[in-house]
Amino acid sequence: MKSTHYLLMAAAALLIAPLTMRAADLKVIANPSVSASSISADDLRDVFLENKDSVAGSHVDPVLEKGGAAHEAFLKVLGKSDAALQTYYRSLVFSGKGSMPKTLTSDAEVAAFVAKTKGAIGYVSADASAPGTRVLEVK
């Protein structure tokens, strides 16, 4: 009985570990006009799914990467595949309830855009340089 319990715990740890590592491979960045220093995982999802447009009283606009490791890790945070996310955004546009977020091709492009655009919030690889941005701790 004990060995079965330990096997189940080990299996659960192996399933959870990749999600944790993927989230740790990211950093969420914001334009310095965004007053927050942290963001909850739920608020982060709500911002990128356009259910919320402010964080700590500051208006925010999400910025996505087109692909790559950071984007794949962020999709895990959202709990969606890239195709499902694109379909979701298209449905917002079609229904008039939202718009397609700005999509850029690299960490450097996302960091530069976020640094110069008031209210912008995005994500880059954990080791990416993002001068002129504020790193938000995800809680």
Describe the fold and architecture.
This protein is an alpha/beta fold and 139 residues long. It has a single domain (2-138), classed as D-Maltodextrin-Binding Protein, domain 2. The protein contains 5 helices and 8 strands. It has a 6-stranded mixed sheet with strand order 2-8-1-7-5-6. A two-stranded antiparallel ribbon has the order 3-4. The longest helix has 23 residues, at 2-24. It is globular and about 35 Å long. The termini are far apart. Residues 4-22 have low confidence and may be disordered.
What's the short version?
The protein contains five helices and eight strands; from the N terminus they run αββαβββααβαββ. The chain has helices at residues 2-24, 41-48, 69-78, 82-95, 107-116, and strands at 26-30, 38-39, 54-55, 58-59, 61-65, 102-104, 120-125, 134-138.
Radius of gyration: 17 Å
> Distance N terminus to C terminus?
36 Å
Query: What is the oligomer described by this structure?
Result: single chain
What percent of residues adopt helix (DSSP H or I)? Answer: 40-55%
**CATH C-level label:** Alpha Beta
The H-and-E topology, N to C, reads as HEEHEEEHHEHEE
Q: Determine the CATH superfamily.
A: Periplasmic binding protein-like II
How many domains would you count in the coordinates? 1
Reported for the largest beta sheet, the result is: 6 strands, mixed
**Overall shape:** globular
Strand tally, please? 8
The overall pLDDT, averaged over residues, is 87
Taking strands numbered 1, 2, ... along the chain, how are they ordered across the largest sheet? 2-8-1-7-5-6
Strand content: 15-25%
